[in-house]
Amino acid sequence: MKYDRQVDSALTELAELFLARHGHAPALLSRAPGRLEILGNHTDYNEGTVLSVAINRAARIAAAPNPEAKDGMVCRLYDIKGRSAREFRLDDLDNCRHGDWSNYIKGLIVEFNLQGFKVPAFDALVTGDVPLSAGMSSSAALEMAMCVILNNLSDARLTWLELAKIGQSCENNYVGAHTGLLDQISSLKGKAGQLIYSDFRSFEVENVPMPTGTVFVVANSKIKHNLTNEYNERREACEEAARILGVKALRDVSPEMLEHRKGELREVVYRRAKHVVGEIARVAAGQIALATGDLALFGKLMTESHESSRKNFENSCPEIDMLVEIGQTIPGFLGARISGGGFGGISVHLVQASAAERYCEALGAEYHRQTGIDSQPMVLAAADGATLWEY
Ligand code: GLA
To answer: Hey, which end of the chain has fewer CB within 10 Å, N or C?
Structure first.
């Protein structure tokens, strides 16, 4: 698809900055959104189901091949927002620098190479407005924005699922976070005005309309999370539960079966499994609530999900609990929960659209009164998934 300057002013500006920096126009532009997880917490790597939404906050990239750059092996990246430049050689990618943003790009190239696709040297300018370390998947947005560009530059022609898996392998193998596929799939398969229902066993993905008359409000606890250690630990507990219960994944365990065989599991492992099994059941109930327009039930499921995160999975934190509690006292509230890996970041609230503005004000004011932190509550809209344009 050819880029039209009217599509996205931030992307048009990025293309102009690319021209100013490199003396030639970019060949490709891309945009890939962050996501909110709405129901189904830590179910993806348990082969379960999730309802998520791609948001109108995204990573944006302008890129062009640059075979002239040194011996055709050097890539140059520049992050406009962080004002940080990175340069690396395509034959020297085994140097993951802990915590560095370029890992999310270098790790993708490694994965393309492992699959037999050669990525040519390129220059890229990167920008984005997905809050970092907040639980909105800024890293997956960057990966998917880059993945669609690398897919084109290397002529790999991978499908969306293959691209999502490349992003996941980058996280698992290069960055060292043993995350599932939720963030990448959400970033690729979003649709304006729609939620995304994903099944992580069959990889069936479909869009479902947003519940009528509602919006999502996001409030940032400003507690920064670091997924790697605690996330990996939670994942190991789920795998231990599945192993002991003799199933392929927790997807195969019903709430009844778990209660029946509770005694075989360590107490903490039981609670981790209870969260995941409960979440999978809540996604199924949520699907029905959406189909029948039962907003109250859908909201209740979200709040129950949070309760289970707090008690069973222990991936919330006092600040997020506070945001969820405050929400319940404000008119327009339907439900609220932690979103994503956890241990900080954002809370997501389902709110009556007509009450959203005042809800944001009241939530922000009360959280600030209790903590001194500005959580910047805002309404986010459901947006389209990753898009690639020729410039
Ligand atoms: C993070 C991971 C996802 C998923 C969520 C929790 O966002 O990247 O794969 O596991 O946490 O649901």
So the answer is: N
Query: Is residue 141 within 8 Å of 184, Cβ to Cβ?
Result: no
Question: Where does CATH 3.30.230.10 sit in the chain?
Answer: 9-35+54-199+386-390
Residues with a catalytic annotation lie at 183
The rounded distance, in Å, linking the Cα atoms of 184 and 74 is: 27
In this structure, which topology does domain 208-380 adopt according to CATH?
Alpha-Beta Plaits (3.30.70)
Q: Where are the beta strands (DSSP E) in 225-326?
A: none
Beta bridge partners of 247: none
CA 155 from centroid of its chain's CA atoms: 26
pLDDT of the residue at 95: 84
For 9-35+54-199+386-390, CATH number? 3.30.230.10
| Distance from chain centroid for Cα 348 | 13
Residue 219 has a CB neighbour count (10 Å cut-off) of 28
Residues in contact with ligand 1 by the CB-under-6-Å rule are: 37, 41-42, 44-45, 137, 179-180, 182-183, 340-341
**How large is the angle between the packed helices 103-114 and 160-169, nearest 10 degrees?**
120
Percent of the chain whose predicted confidence (pLDDT) is above 90 = 92
Q: What is the distance in A from the centroid of ligand 1 to the CA of 154?
A: 28
Beta pairing partners, 220: 346
Residues contacting 214, CB < 8 A, separation 6+: 295, 334, 350, 351, 352, 353
Q: Where in the chain is CATH 3.30.70.890?
A: 208-380
Q: What is the pTM of this model?
A: 0.96
Residue 211, both tokens: 């519940």
For residue 341, which atom of ligand 1 is closest to its CA? 11
Token pair, residue 152, equals 């084109």
Question: What is the Å distance from ligand 1's center to 182 Cα?
Answer: 6
pLDDT digits (tens, 9 = 90+) for 33-58: 999 999 999 999 999 999 999 999 99
CA atoms within 13 A on the CB side of 201: 11
